[in-house]
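Hey, resending since the last one bounced:
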Amino acid sequence: MSLNFSSFVVFAEMRTGSNFLESNLNAFSGITCHGEAFNPHFIGYPNTSEILGVDQETRDNDPRILLEAIKTQSDGLGGFRYFHDHDPRVVDLLIDDTSCAKIILTRNPVESYVSWKIAQATGQWKLTDMKAHKSGHAVFDEGEFASHIEDLQKFQLMLLRRLQTQGQTAFYIAYEDLQSVEVMNGLACYLGVDDRLEALDKSLKKQNPEPVAAKVSNFDEMQAALSRFDQFDLTRTPNFEPRRGPVVPSYVAAAKAPLLYLPLRSGPEPQILDWLAALDNNERGDLPSKMNQKQLRQWKRKHPGHRSFTVLRHPVDRAHDAFCRHIVTTGKGSYSQLRATLIKRYKLPLPDGEPDSSYDEAEHRVAFKAFLTFIKGNLNGQTAIRVDQAWCTQAQAIQGFGEFALPDRIIRESDLETELQGLAHSAGLSTPPALPPRRPQKPFELGAIYDDEIEKLAADAYQRDYMMFGFDRWR
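The structure tokens again:
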């Protein structure tokens, strides 16, 4: 069934069979594939100077000119091959164009890597006659392969995600499918072309048909290296937490000094705001905050040499701060509706109203453990309650900052005083103030209730933060 495509792109990589696929696409009446149209080193093919009257300089100045030419001037349905290291300006234009058919060609990355290494060694990138075959062996390099596979996976995941969010689909072809005339004819059907092939174009030959073991000179070393790769990502810490935005309005700048604080909620925010205010002998209310992205850009332009920072707090301490500040209390800062829901639906053992003097450390410990159990389920997407910034993972919050601007420094609370002094000096401040003391947690300090079970519950809930930032036991 035709989807009314006006062009196509083959997303592939070197040594995945893309030349063979192109030769068979060009065997269809009504399809023209223009090679690697956006290879930064040449246009189309190594020995050509233009495609459809568009030369390389024109393409490099504005890739849309060549895209439009391929769409409107090709003989039939026009397209090209695109690799992950081709002109990056083209990717958004292709994905956003729903009239451009997407074909995704894949191959076992070990096989494609070995083929690439042999081609490098022999200088032979295509083969049309076995008499011209040049033999050679690949030398496996673990670091090079790791980089190679990381680049490929990153690009493939980006394609998958972008097509999903656009509501588009692609025609997937594996390297092994290239020998099937039925699959090729199915591709023509997907593209809306009526012509069908009776046989494949066999002008290009498989260059190295031997088993991988016969093509790699250090095969035993390669096997040992590949055993260290986690093919199924078994060691990954699962992350079901929703993505967070950059939350620019939460950023706070010093009144005059070129310092910008990106707060992680339930961290040492009160201390740092007091310190920022003391830098210029101001009050907290004088600190620039609640900026939008435009205003923040303006602030950065007016403060050359600016430094930005955020502060990590140990997950147990941070969860306890969120619990005390937003859940235990019923006063200012309380999430009163959420508190009631946690008590009713998640059996959080807290009094209905504000805790009085009868609420002791033992009750607080039990309630906090129940809250940590809730956080684990909440972060794993197992509750109907939002993941609040007060207890989201710090890894996810910092990743959200990166959508606009990553902090220059990520400081651990345990090193806060020393690091802030150094940060101030780097920003040209010779005599920064001392860090104000931390304000006590109410109704109880964490040290009064902390035990091994609390540590384990926190480590289970915040696996990602413990792994990403190397947190050990609290104190």
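Residues 129 and 205 are 7 Å apart (CA to CA).

Sorry for the duplicate.
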